[in-house]
Amino acid sequence: FTREEMEAGLIDWRAMTPPEHRALDESGLEQMQTQGACIPFEKELILRDGTRLPILISGVRLSSEPLKWVCWVADLRALRDADAVARRSDALRSELEAELRGAYWIYEIENRLLGKSSVAEVLNELLDAAIDIAEADFGMLQLVDSGTLRIIAQRSLPEEFLKFFFEVSEETKAASSAALQSRSRVVIEDVAKEEVFIGTAARSVLLNAGIHALQSTPLLGATGEPYGMLTTHSRLNGQ
Q1: pLDDT tens digits for 45-73?
Q2: Could you tell me the pTM of the whole model?
Q3: CB 152 within 8 A of CB 143
């Protein structure tokens, strides 16, 4: 808008205010009437092209009858843009850290696998590396056989657990079966509170083994089909 439009009374600040911000204006007017000034607050104005301008506004009363006031306004676009940049920067930093952790994981596994002569040694080293990197207490590797997961390597899991989960089908209430169906990682932060386990034998087996949190990651081939599952288990919730 131009100054000429303003001086001609052609600018209606109420019409420029989005409906969801009008209550803030009314509160500000009431504060100026009763207290002589209003506390600064954030709102938006609808510009001529339909876009919205974020502002910080406050006012001081000049007269009560009729109510007149003077306002000061700060344009918040630069601050909002800076906040958006900061959020994006944080997101990129998190992504980079995740990529670096993944790269270190691969490097660590490659080092461990050098010189191994048998498939069993390779699988055990792979499982040990995953448990160490995840800072977990237990772990297992399963292979897919006609839609069923079978344990081929494990660390520190008790006999009751191994008997119960030795073969896991899609119908079994387990993180690994859910990961197999979804083709994506499944994380259980608290076995005792996880709804899918409530009232199941799997819940008792997990808790009896001292397992309170776990994650299952499908091992996918070049075509995207899963050929195995890597699962790590923790005694402490949220790990």
Answers
A1: 999 899 999 999 988 888 888 888 888 88
A2: 0.54
A3: yes
